[in-house]
Amino acid sequence: MGDNAVVIYGVALLSGCMIAGVFCGELLGELIGVRANVGGVGIAMLLLILAADRLQGQGRLKPISRQGIVFWSSIYIPVVVAMAASQNVLAAVEGGPAALLAGFLAVGVGFALVPAISRVGRSEKVESKEDGP
Amino acid sequence: MTVVVESLRSVLLSNGLVAAFAFVGVTVWLSYLVSDRLTRGRVHGSAIAILIGLVLAYAGGVATGGDHGVADIDVLAGVGLLGGAMIRDLAIIATAFGVHLSEIRKAGAGAVVGLLTGVLGSFAVGATVAWLFGYTDPVSMTTIGAGAATYIVGPVTGTALGATSDVVALSIAAGLVKSMLVMTTTPFVARHIGLDNPRSALVFGGLMGTTSGVAGGLAATDEKLVPYGAMTATFYTGLGCLLGPSIVFVTIRAFFG
Lengths: 133, 257
Hints:
Order of helices and strands of chain A: HHHHHH
Number of strands of chain B: 0
Oligomer: heterodimer
Mean pLDDT of chain B: 89
Distance between the termini of chain B: 66 Å
Largest interface: A-B, 82 and 117 residues
Largest sheet of chain B: none
Low-confidence stretches of chain B: none
Structural class of chain B: mainly alpha
Low-confidence stretches of chain A: 124-133
Helix content of chain A: over 70%
């Protein structure tokens, strides 16, 4: 079997993390009784980080397998462009002044809070470091 | 001539995803060309590509009357698959490869504070706007507030509370406006709000919450920040669906019921 065959190991690792993470997100949603996936993609990302870290530490994630993950991460921007091209822009524009204002203000408040809350995280980080074992 | 057109059509129809790769590839290439030549690289190529995508989506919506932008044009249906939740989530997760766990631990507290503030703040803003426009009953105020969170939290909350369909539609529109604004304005605002490191990206994802908006906005700002923002953003919609029909609705009803 050629070395190239193992590219699929990387893709399979990525896919496995996604299925496991999204599955956990669904279960979490069921558990707290909401009709939505709670953090499935975020959980999958954590799984991938942990799995890749462990496998690389053991030297079991070969560069060629890594390519199977790196390809998908580098195709990310085109995927986002395709996502933008398939949004319901018409509905957003036709939503009228109430929808425009609500969306606009929500974004403005969000932007304004980024610096303040980034600081909150930093000071708590210092405290927890001092408290930590 | 019609034979040629018909054959091309049938080839595009039966190879939708491949046609989408070519279509998006040309769009991205053009965008980087515009970025280089017209803005001398000042506006990131990805930002222009996303903007072109949104404009095309608008044109697609006008042409077909559908909900999925360009993807409603049959020969471009593959764009919907390429940009749909499945491939998008796979690509987002792949960006986590190479993320440093220590960065996430460092920002953990800030990210959680950002998430809660982002969800509750959006509800407050949306409900206030709803009230200003004459939607003064608690159900409509909560539903439109939910839409200001994301365009998924809106209809989920509205359905749970029994909101009318025009209010649900309005909440979806508010969420769409938010998502598109985040996609297009983030690269221009980033520098002024210190959005240039993993920590602030984690907070940003939690504050904004719209996965598509955060994913697009950060891609156009700095690709390295994408996984951090996307990670917290994916918890936002679930949190919004949890808090909306419960705590937020009860609170709004206590004041306006």
